[in-house]
Structures are given as C-alpha cells and as structure tokens.
Design brief:
heterodimer; A: alpha/beta; Rossmann fold; Helicase, Ruva Protein, domain 3; 2 domains; two-stranded parallel ribbon; 15 helices; about 45% helix; B: mainly alpha; Four Helix Bundle (Hemerythrin (Met), subunit A); elongated
Chain lengths: ~325, ~650
Amino acid sequence: MSLDARIADFRTSYAALRAEVTKVIVGHDAIVDGALIALMAGGHVLLEGVPGLGKTLLVRTLGQVLDLSFNRVQFTPDLMPADILGTNLVVESGHGGREFQFQHGPIFANLVLADEINRATPKTQSAMLEAMQEKSVTAGGAIRKLGEPFFVLATQNPIDQEGTYPLPEAQLDRFFFKLVVGYPSAAELNEVLIRTTEGGNVQVKPVLQRERLIAMQGLVREVPVASHVRDYAVRLILATHPKTETAAPITNQYLRFGSSPRGGQTLILAAKVLALTKNRFNVGFEDIDEILVPALRHRLIANFEAEAAGITTDHILSEILKFVPKDPATLRV
Amino acid sequence: MSDIEWIEGQLREGTKRSRLIRAWHGFWRGLFWGCLVWFASVVIFKVVPIHEQISVWVGLLGALSAFGVAAAAGWKGVSMAEFARFVDSRRGAKERVSTAFEMSRTGGGGGWRDLVVADAVKVLQGTDPRKLMPFVVPPIGRWIVLILALGAGLGFVPEYRTAEQKRALQDVANIQDTGRHLVEFAKRNLDVRSPVLENRPKSFEAVQELGEHLAKAKVTRNDALKELAALADRLTQEAKELSKDPALKKLGEQSRSNPGRTGNEAELQKKMDALSRQLGEKAGDPKALAELQRDLEKAREAAAGATSDGGQLDSQAARSMAEKLAELAQQAQALGVPLPDLEKAIEALKRADVDQFLKSLESAEKSLEKMEQMARALESMREEMHALGKNLAEQLKNAQAQAAIGTLARMRKELEGGARSDKSRLEMIKELRDALEPARSYGKVAEHLEAGSRKIGEGDLSGGREELAKASKELENLMAEMAEGESLMASLDALQRAQMAVGNGINWGQCKGAGSARGGKPSKGVGTWADEDSQLADLPEVTERWDNSDVQRQDMDARGVTDRPEDRSSALVPTKVKGQINPSAPMPSITLKGVSVKGQSRVGYTEAIPAAQSQAQSALSQDQVPRAYRGAVRDYFNDLKE
C-alpha cells in the first residue's frame, strides 16, 4: 500500500472510530480525541473525574469499537497484585501428577480498563508498572509478554475523595495522557438525558481491527518533525525543570519536579497523531501547544506553595507556554 | 525544475529581500533610538546648563546611527532556513515550508518528503515576498514623528537656569572674552616689540598663555581671578626687580614726565626744520593764528546770519563784510600766512556769490586751523629742544639717553678723522669727565666714558672711540631694558583690567578703568567731583567721538593751578558729604562669600594666600569693601606673600 493510501486509510479509520465512539459519548470531544490520540500513539490514558461523568462508559465503548480483547479490573482497596497479573495455581496434570500452572490475570488483554485505579493500595497500583512500560509481566519467576497492542485506560476519582490513594509518581509518569473529565454543558446533559431515558440502547460495532491499529501506530511514527519543532518540545520540557537555567519563572516558584523525558516523547508522538488527523504531513508548533497540558499535567509535581495558593499544574503549563518562545531563530524584520 | 529546486529558488529570492527589509527596519530603529537620545539631550539641556552644541552633535550622531544600524542589520546575511520559518510564521503555514526545506536538505524521508514538499509548494505559490515584506514605514515611525515634534516643541520652551547658573554662564563667557582680549593684547605687543632680554619677554608670552587658557577652558570666576592674581604677582615681582636698577628708574621718570618725546636732537631738529619750512618764518605764533581763525569764524557766522532766504546779502552787510575781510587779509599778511581761500572769498563777495563766499571762508578757516596745529607742534618741539641737555653731562643728568647716544655718536664721528686739535680733544675730554658723575647711575657707562677720556687723552683715538661705542651700547641696552619694563607695566595694566573685568563680571571694553593710568597720570574719574556711586557709573562706555566743538571750558589746567572764576557753575563747587564710616574707628567686619571663618581650615597654606588674594580682589572689584578701606585692604593682601 502506498504512503498516500496508508495516510488516507488512517484518516478514514480515525474518523470512523471517532464517529462510532461519539454515538455513545455525548460531548467531551477533547476527552474522546485525547483517548484516541493516545490509542494511535500507543500510550495509556488516565481519566480523572468525579463519579458519573462517563469515564467508564468511554473506555467500555472504546473496547466495543475496537476489535480487541478487553478486560476490566475494578480496583478496590483489597485488590491484590496477583488479582491483576495472575498467579501460579497447582493443577492436576493429564497423567495424574500435579503441576503449577499460571493463571493469567485480567492484565492479559489488548485493552484493559482499570476502573477507579486510585481506590487500590499503592502496592496493587504498582503491580501495573512493568506491564504498562515494558508490556510484560514477571510472575512466578517467568517473564510473560503481553499482546500487542496493549492499552491501559484507567479512571480515577479526584484524590480528595474518600477512600482514594494517590498514584505514585512513577505510575503517573507511565500514562501517556491524563484527561480530566469535566461536567457536561446544558446541551450535552440534555442530550444525555434524552439518549438514556427515552430511546433504546445505542449499539456500536467494531470498526478497527488489531492489525490495522498496529499499522496506524506505525504510520504515526513516520510523520516527519522539523528540528526546530522538536527543539520547541525540548525547550518546553526543560522549562518545567525547576532551579535550572532554562526554567520558567513560574516553574521555580511552584514546582518541585518537572517532566521526565517521557513527557517529551509524549509531546512529539501526540503531535504527530494530531498533524495527521488535521490533514497535514508534518508537525507544527500548534500541535505541540494543543497537547501540552494533557501530556504533562500529571508529570509535574507542584510544591506546597502552589497547593496552598490553589495553583494547578494546568495553570503552570499555560504560563510556561507563554514563556517559551516558539522559534528564537525566526527572522525578525 | 523540481519542486525542491523551485522552493529553494523562492526562498533565495526571499532572503535577498529580507536583507533589504531588515536594513530598512534597522534604519528606522536606529533613527528612533537616535531621536530618543537627541530628545533626552534636549531635555537635559533645558534643565542642566550643558553646552548647546552637545544637542546638535547628538542629533547628528542620531541621524548617523540610523544609517549605522541599517548597515549593520543589512550586513548580516539571512539563511533560507530562517526565511522559511519566517514564511511559516507570517503565512500561518504550520511549519510546512520550514519542514519541507529541512527535509530537502537532509535528504531521506522518502514519500513523506514528497508529500511535505508538495504541501509547501502550495503555500509558497500564494506567497509574494514583496507583499510579505513591503517597504512601508514601520509603526516605530509614528514614535519618531512624535519625538521630533516634542523636541521641536521643546525648542520654544525657555531653558531653566538658576540665578547662580546664569551668573556662572555669564562669568564663563566674560572670562573667555577677557582671555581673548589678553591674547590679542599680548600678540599685538609681541609683534611690535622685539624683546632684548631673555627672561623679560616671557611676560607677554605668559599673558598670552593665560589668555589662551581662559579663552578655551571653562574656569570659574574665582579660579580665573586666582590665576590672574598669580601672574600679576609674578610680573609685579619682576617689575620690582627691574625697578631696583637706578638707571632704569631715572630713565623711567624721564619717560613718564616727557611722554612721547624722543630725546633725539637730530631727529627733533629735522622735524622742526620741516615744520618751519611749511609755516614760513613769521607764522610761528599759534595764539595769533588762533585769534585770526576765531575772527574768521565770527565773520563767516555773521555772513551766514545776514544771508536772506533767497541766499543773498544786502548791500550794507556786504560792504561791512568786505571791509572786515580786507582787514583780516591784512592781518594774515602781517602774520606771514598766505590764505588764497580768503582772497577767493573776497572775490566771491564782490560777485555776490554767497555760496562760494561761504565755502571759501570755511576752507580758509580749515587752512588756518591746520597752520595753528603745526605752529603748536613746532612750539612744543622747540620746548623739547630747549629742555635737551646741552652736553653729555646734562643729557645724562636729565636721563635723556637718546640725546646722550646722539652726542656719543657725534664724538665718535669727530674721532674718526684722527687729526683732532689739542683744544678740541681737551674739550671732548672735559665733556666726558664732566659726564662721569651723572653717568655713574647708568651701569658701566661711567667706566667706559672714563676709559674713553683716558685713551683720548693718551692719544689713542681709536681706543677712545671704541670705549665711547661701548658706552653708547650700554645706554642702548638700558633703553631696551626700559622698553621691556614698559612692556611689563603694560602687561600688568592688562592683567589689572582683566581682573576688573572678571571680578565685576563686565566686559573688557567697560574696564578702561578708574584709578591711575600709565605714567602716574590720573585716569577718568579721579580728581573730579563726579558721583561715582550713582547708577550712572554703570552706564556702558560711549565709544563714539563726541562733538564738543562748541563747548567752552572755563579752564583746561589742573585744579589749583589756575584761579577759578567766582561765577563758576554750582555743580563745580565742592561739597562735603558726611561719611558713614569713621576712618579712625575700628574697621567693621565684612563677610566675604566662599571664605570660611569658622572651623578647621582644610586649605593648604600655599593655596590659602592666592585664594585669599583672589577673593579680596573680587571683593574690591565688586565694591564690597568700603571706599575708605580699599587701599588698606589691597595693601594688606598684596603684602601677604612677602
């Protein structure tokens, strides 16, 4: 298949996927787009919002429209790592003996919904670290590869809710995006009420097969990025590092830790997907700007002063965006 | 041409234009900053007394800076990558062009490169560099116009200067003007006089140097006065040393008592002969000539008064006038004065040509006036001749050095022949010996005269002549020294005038001063009853010539020499005004500006005296010291150094 055809197929598939999802999800365009971008880039998504906003529904719908294996794990405080990863069980062998057999946990699927992930203890949360980054599970002394593609779509309630445990920084860093689900607008809410109280259930059908999704992910990585655009992403990441020469003033004031290099990878990959979806063949500054907040908001650790003043990482990132010049070498006439 | 080549061609064209545009914008930026700095300099000038030329120069530099910045901005090349990014940012091309250019340069990318390049071509096809970078005045131009307008408006705003600053500026201008006058004075004197001694001519040079310094440097009044006083002190010291020479002292006295007289007998005789030839033998009485001139003037005035509106004299008046003129012609004849104009006037009267008559009379008057002046000059020369010593002894005694040099020259000439009679030799020896006593005041003149007389007596005429030549040379040197002394005094006068000008803050021309003039003679304002303290004293000096032809002064001589008539003007009667200061009482204290009378002095001893002298000079010049104590104050501060 030619490049033109691959790109055209990407755009068509993406549009179909989005259209199918939006049959179920009312509003939340940015959330839907964010989830799809992460999907195309091969990243995991953390959805945060108060209960009842459709987080789980979104992930479930994605599971339905993608022709992939789907598992759901409801995180609770008594959930153990083995409940996620799987464990060795003693089973009788065919010839009368007994042997250990690994019982796969729900993590062994292409699409995993980790519902209310922050209701499990940090110990259980951390069980997913290896799976999310290396796409493999080590259990009973054996390393087991997870299938491709592998996505974790986690939901969590705001940390000030009762019975929640904040995700450790290492865990957070493994999420490609953190999407904050807000309240719907009046029109959206109206539409939700109509769909859920009057008509029948909307049926969605799978529109994207596993192989095509992998091909799309491969295509994304081919999108060219000019050096000065990449430099811009680098400068943005460096501007989040407090107490350095490149730090923005607000960084030094309100941040304890800045973004890891994963943040930079996220910026470029997400920008590539965005460029393709916007009918371009190259990444622009605008793409970087657009995905900066969901890509980095969970990677910055605010200090006490920021928390005391109610300064969110979203605000800090918007200030950093103003501080970092797009292209210092641009010709000035 | 491939798409990549086309893109590069477009970008190359764009870089050329962007250089020009950058230079264009640089020009305006430079102009803006230049205008801003110029405006700042104008504001500073309006508030602080800086030199007004500074703003002009800053303005010029500002204009030049515009070209400088333009050249610097245009000098730096623009890369195609830079221009590609510029197009992206201006066209909102989402980095299509810059990405395409980068991919074309780095190679690789395969199909992606073709897609990106094709995308960039679409963007560039709709891009015209001339529209993208038009030659228009940038927004900064409005600020430039505003700044220039404000600057021009400031031109109408008067400068803010405190009274002290105004005075300081006036002082500086006055000091510079005084300096220029000092330079002019010194140059004029250096051109005229050729100094003989090695150290003395430096006085003029020092005056010139000081004048140049004052004319160029901006010094305060106190500093200027200090420098003037220091130089005046030095020159005074030199003058004092010079005055210790008794010969010079004597020559100086003679020079002061007979100013303008040469003392050269031969030259004097030559001039007298020339004047006598012009006047004739009889016409030597200036009084008679003056009387004749007055009669002639009265006759002319009478004729003018008797002339009718038609310009004619009646017969009676004409007859009377003819008789008067005939009488005057006879008087002129008797005085030996030929007056052809008077004859012409009589002829014109006969013809009733009144205009010609009056013109001829006026011409006759002028001729008479000229003759009277010549007669007076002749009389003065005769007096001078009479005052000249008859022999060498008298000439030396009277300090008539020029005459003595003439006498010695005559003697040498007489000795040149060699064959002199005993009688004439004895007479010469006697004259020389008689002159020995007065010659002792003239350095080695007496020694040479004595040696000369001895050698003549011994028959060594050439030796005697040499000795006389040496004596003559010695006298010439003394005269040269005398001239130098006069130069020194002239320098001191000039310095005093400069001190007065600087101290009073008035210009040089207004300082032809009260006090004593050269030669010990009183200058204006001294020995009169003028009210010098009135405001009239501050009026500027009138330099035009007064027409005082009709002023009849009651007496021309000094007060006390002649009797004054009883009916003299009441304004000339001296009156006693009761003074407020009693000379015998203790001197009242005066506070002088700048002199600290309390606390510990931080001024060095050597600096304190000139400073005090300059302050005192300033105070004296500005009438801060009561008149009765001025002499005492001046003497005290003059003697401080001693």
